[in-house]
Here is the input.
Amino acid sequence: MAYNKENYRRIRAAYQTKYLKAHEEADRRMAELHAKSPAIAAIDRELAMAGAEIAMAALGTGKEYKEKLAAVKEKNLALQRERAILLKNLGYPADYTLPPYECELCQDSGFVGTKMCECMRRELVLAAYEESGLGELMKTQSFESFSLDYYKADPVEAEKMQKNLEILHTYAENFDTGADNLILLGDTGLGKTHLSTAVARRVIDRGFDVYYTGAIAMFADFEHARFGTGLGEQMADPARYVDCDLLILDDLGTEVTNQFTNSCLYMVLDQRINLRRPTIINTNLTGKEIRARYTDRIASRILGVFKPLLFVGTDVRRQKLMK
Here is the structure.
């Protein structure tokens, strides 16, 4: 898995801070308790010496070793029982002086042994959702919420869309660097955005870095980087379009096409193809329109390298409004 490196560094550092704060809070509570109860302070000093006593017992052999070790353990258990009673009498819970970890499983380290803890994985996924560019789409558009009912009027179209759904679901479940490049073709309102969002959600859940953007927004970011324009809006780093594990470029063909946008598009596609970083393109353009609109170098990459999925049917948004 290839979580976004910046997110990983930031969240890893946050876990280190949480771990230290939990131990600092445990030390503060210990000092507070010792100030209130000299008896507990004395017990804690004895318990702190348990390691040395066990080490000394270990110098023995055979029956002598076992007897000494059992005596040390019994002594420690008695001290812990006495300590628990004193804590209860003072109104403190038995675990008051233990570090108050947010996650007991990994003790706020982010890892259980060498395996990433589920809590840290969840933080990385949530961060990836926030930075994916999907925004509100993430909340409603998934494989589970995609309905084939809107395509049932024509059995041929229904079969085609069923196949598209299966292909994209399999693509998301098996995604890895080096996966196919896809181009989703078809008129507005046929589910291209919905299913590409569903792919993005699942690929993010599996730990990959996904960036979802519209063509107009991408070219605006390049324009801002090149000319310093952007009307004060927050812009993405153009390197984001090349570096992510999966780029989903929505609404290709809605941008104003000129030499600058052609140059930017060619650079992104060419670098991602050479680096074997998959891209999904959504467009209303036909293959013929792509050839007419873009340079030969761009058209040859889109039509020669990207696997086409044709979306068919009647505008789903219009169908929903008519209900």
